[in-house]
Amino acid sequence: MDASNSTIQIRIERASTAVPRLIFTAEFPSHEGFEAQLPTWRPGRYELGQFAQFVFRMEGQDLGGSWEALRKTDLHRWFVPAGIQTVRWEFYADIFNAGSTGIGDDIVYINPVNCILYHPDHQDWGYQLQLVDVPDSWKVATGLPMHNGLLIAENVQHLMDSPILAAQSLWHETYESNGVPFHIWAYGKNLPDAERFVKEHRAFTDAQIAHFGDFPAPHYHFIYVLPEREVRHGVEHEDTTVIAQGPSAKCQTEEGHMELIGIASHELYHAWNVKRIRPAEWTPYDFSQASPSRMGYVAEGVTTYMGDLFLFESGVVDLAGWCRLMEQLLDRHINNPGRLNLSVADSSYDTWLDGYSPGVPGRKGSIYVEGAVLAFLCDVRIMQLTGSASSLQTAMRLLWEQVGEPRIGLTESDYWSVLNEVAGAPDALEDLRRDFADGTEDSWDSLVAAMEWQGLALTKSSENGRWKSRIEPK
């Protein structure tokens, strides 16, 4: 491959080793010494990923063709001496969640943000990737454009947000919404019911685009990895989502099918919220260090609530189905005393301390659960104050127009100002922010009242030492 003055050329191939590994060989367009950076975390997962733990070796090729080991300058950086342009490393590749990298005899799945180096001082450099040992007969699912057999990324931000799935056998269907092509790809021994799967994807896609007014990408790919392992996971990207569920037979059960659809609706909503309506701390992404933000409850909580709501709005689930989804959410809410100890804003910040593990019992809440509960309360408040003329989705569309489309980082004050504006008064939701975003008040009575306003009765009972919620039409 011919290296250009502004492009990093990378060859990727599977290693012939007992432990699954990928070999990356990169040609950097630099004659000066520099520090090669491996990302420390990935978007969609608000914790340090410590991806360098998966690197077996890192070496550079000198002018005489000899390879020498490169020394680290910190945990995720290696010094590349002047005169070395070619760097080679081996990476552990046997993890099959939605944000990982894994290989097999019939699959190569790469999330670049796990495993590909970049030059910190030249993040505008493009990339050209060659999948060396992937047969021409295999299908490749990715949002990256392909030219002459090479996958092309414009810069570091583009590459790190573009997963790649190549497999011997990939199920592929397409549909169109608002003039935008949508692709569904699936790898696995067992696959979902095709007709129903596509119909439901089209339904919630149409509904979400209708509410936002347009779609922010020229195309979109739903990539499903259905391995024979226990996994449930989804990750959003600019024009792609990867969703993993296993074992693959689960997708053919009603529970497993609806689980996939629920994750898909959630991840599609991220195309606006988080990928474009993005907290200032992540605009642009800094992959070299932790990037804590108090706005995880907006990023994930609003998306969790809206993802489920659009299943109802689009007719994928009926009212009873939406009630069951809310019950699952509220069961997690009322059984976690951590919500009464650390606010959802503080919990958002502290995901960077203990990640997604349960952590110390009773210390913090879930940004997905508590954020969704707060989103529901905000949605109902706005509808109450505007006679249902506006809603939380009205505010999200306004945020898309004011912040997301122009790529302006979102702040907490921006978010709450827009919600108050849509509700019709500068302090319309101030009590909700004080008590349930920044504070740790118990929201149960507010939830009961909000459900009642919507014509629903919310109750709870104790079963085997755990609280169980119930939502029914009045």
Detailed description of the structure:
The chain has 474 residues and is of the alpha+beta class. The chain folds into 3 domains: 7-167, Immunoglobulin-like, CATH 2.60.40.3650; 170-267, Neutral Protease Domain 2 (Neutral Protease, domain 2, Orthogonal Bundle); 272-280 and 292-474, Orthogonal Bundle (Neutral Protease, domain 2). It has helices at 112-115, 156-160, 194-212, 254-269, 296-313, 319-334, 344-354, 367-386, 392-404, 412-423, 430-437, 444-453, and strands at 7-14, 21-27, 34-37, 55-61, 67-69, 72-74, 77-80, 86-92, 102-104, 107-110, 126-131, 139-142, 146-147, 150-153, 164-167, 171-177, 180-188, 220-226, 231-236, 240-246, 456-463, 466-473. Strands 5-4-8-2-1-11-14-13 form an 8-stranded mixed sheet. It has a 5-stranded mixed sheet with strand order 16-17-18-20-19, with helices on one face. α3 links the parallel β17 (180-188) and β18 (220-226). The protein is globular and about 80 Å long. The termini are far apart.
